[in-house]
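Reviewer 2 asked us to include a model.

Predict the structure of this chain.
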Amino acid sequence: MRISLQHLGWTTAALGLLGLIGCPMSGDDDDMAYGGGGYGDDDDDVESERVFGPDDVEDDVCVEVPAEPTTWFVSADDSNSMAQPTLFRRAIEAGYPIQAAPRLYEFLNYYSFDFGPGSEVRLVPQLRRTEEGALSLLVAVVAPDKANTARRPLNLTFSLDLSGSMGDYGIAGLQSAVRAIVGELQSGDMVSMVEWSTSQTVLVSSRTVSGPNDPTLLGVVAGLSPGGGTDLDGGLARAYALAWQNWSATSLNRVILISDGGANVGVTSAELIAQHAEDGQSDGVYLGAIGAGSIQESLMDTITDLGKGAYMYIDSDAEAARLLGGDRFLAAVDLAARDVQLALTLPEGVVIDHFSGEEISANPDEVRPQHLAPNDSMLYHFDLVDCTEEASGRLVGLEVTWLEPFTGEQRSTSMTVDWDALLAGPSDAVLKADAIVRYARIAGGEALDAQLVYDAAAALPTDTDLAEVAGLTQLVAP
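Predicted model (structure tokens):
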């Protein structure tokens, strides 16, 4: 069984998935904190973050206590899907209400966690008892470290939206993103660029760059300006055609779509557009998407979700540097593991009260595997209730499976951890995850106590992420 909102009798409308901003800011649409269109629709099969319903009451979740260990298969989406935190922050700082349910896994993806150095995919679990007497579990699937100089060559094809809806603000975000990526390229990388509005034009075809900040590419980017309709499907198709033309078995081949997510010319179905991503991935061309301007987010999220691609939002040079510079560059464009799937076996008597991921099921076929980038981690966050506190000698089982990105070799690693030993172990990462999830839920409109966020920031005073989260929480907490 895969747990979904429909299974629980909830609807996307009930969760407010109809737009993030309650009203536009005065002036141009480019000033809106989270774009102007719809955000999802009532027919979407949105995956639930809650497994057992809306009441945080132990008597409710412990009605059917598992007498045997229970195995769950879980998904947290691509490790670099992280658009919502930037969009939420923009809305909060602009003083506008948020009217969208947070995708909690994107918030965990956005903020940084340090699990120490490593050269292989590995599992890191942490468990802590909360002040409310419940439990929080964080399982990290941690990718190996990789230096930019140690990577394979890149074959990048940019699909650049220059439609009129992008406006000056959208074009500025697009330019910030491309400049940040161009600044990380090295000799031997290949770049192509397609600009599109009502029609498509190839700006750069199969250029082998000489190193970082290639002047030809920067010159092209500096001259971009918006105008025309929005044939997103045509722009994506032309980019994929160039990516195939330059495809190399020794390179990482990726199409990078930068757009506000509008589509009003040509094919406008999200599923049909996303088919380009699915077709491309099957043959080794991966999709990444960057939102800019007054984003129509549902289309961008659908495309990258169906294509198992990363999705972020860039609104400034500072945000581009944060998400695309340094170690996070490879996290945005490279691959460490394909089709990652985690199996979590909880001991008897332990019940999941809330899951902050995308999908959860006892059937592995109902949970879509996702991709993991180097210098990154997939984070799975659970609120648990232990219905048999007196039990001892219980174990937690973890197994992650994946494919090597270039050979397709099936790999796995597993571990078994004593429940009590896990409770007595380190808990800094799970405390940080608790605070991030609490902030996101409060920002999304839930009436929750914000003290956890402030306590985490005080307990980890050098963590700049928690300082940011605490500041944002102060702006939205009741």
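The chain has 15 helices and 16 strands. The mean pLDDT is 84. We have added this to the supplementary material.
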